[in-house]
Amino acid sequence: MSLQAVPEKYDDVTPEWLGAALRSSGAITSQKVIEVTFEPLGAEYGRTSSLVIIHPSYDTPGDGPSALFAKFVSTIQSNREFVQQWDVFRYEIEVYRSLGGRLPVPMPRYYFGDYEDGSDVAVLMMEVVSGRRFTELPPDQRAAGLVAGTQRVALKPLAEMHAQWWNSKALDDLPWLREWTGSNATSLVQAADGSSFGDLREAVRPYLTAADLVLYDAAPHQLDRIEKSLTSMPLTLCHGDYHTQNMLWDSLPDANSVVVVDWQFLNRGPAVRDLSYFLGLSTGKDKGADVVADQVQFYCAELPDEIQAIYPVQEVMAGLAPAILDHIVRFQVLFTELDFAQPSAADFAGNLFARICNFGAAVDAGEWLTA
Known about the structure:
Layout: H1 15-24, E1 33-40, E2 49-58, E3 68-73, H2 77-85, H3 88-99, E4 110-115, E5 122-127, H4 139-144, H5 148-164, E6 178-179, H6 182-191, H7 194-204, H8 210-218, H9 223-231, E7 235-238, E8 247-249, E9 258-260, E10 267-270, H10 271-282, H11 289-301, H12 305-310, H13 313-335, H14 343-362, H15 365-370
Parallel strand pairs: 6-10
Antiparallel strand pairs: 1-2, 2-3, 3-5, 4-5, 7-10, 8-9
Helix pairs in contact: 5-10, 5-11, 6-9, 8-14, 9-13, 10-13, 10-14, 13-14
């Protein structure tokens, strides 16, 4: 239940509402918010939310945050429908309320979150994290992917989070946590418009090699086998969307620290889904199997000895093939919604599939499909 009406958009925020919100979470005590100004962020910073930095002014000096990063529901109806379908806001608010400060993966400090019962209206406010985004790199550096050392800056906390919750009964104490289930992908494929799959394939085909197209075309037809393989693997806490666009780095191309955002898809699932997703989207298209194997070795070395004993690096490597094939299918479903009348849509989707199909080749996904 809300303390007071949740603002639908940032310019509905008043000093009184913001002050009450910050007091309810303990971010301020005796201070009073007397003025708020807004710094809207462009669409490139968020596809499912309206994003803004809020600058409060206070009546007295104190510990109140000088700026807050805030998410509001999107002004685009299709985005609002997606967010409502997946209950994105309520879920991410629960993640921050329940697990903020408990995870080894660095995440922004949570200040306040609330939603209107029976509505998609919601707001989430966090600390403003300064950092560089992968998309800010020049095109040639983006094509080359993250350098090995920077990948490891993100792999280390990922391994620590997976280890912390590995087959843990403590996950049962999070009743709101989503379960990863293979049937979800199957139902998504069945529900998608078949003609849209054809339109997507035509749009991305110029970006893919013949070997890429083999993986692209074959993966949906082996979805049952893919999901059966993944479902048999050990379960842990997974970010669910662990990739470069959800990361803020202290510097690039060589980073020493990272903060991970967008926790809407946290789930209990097989660790290789996070691992393959991150490596698949951050490894350059010119990188081969040896580079991938080195990074997987690094990830595994960060796991405790008792986990390595029952889940050795060879088994992790073997699990990457079905994991990346699963992602290929899910991206196919997701991208059927793109408007390919816009040239940027084909370029975005085509380059993404080229990258993850190249990663598929590096982890022998083609051989897995024919085994």
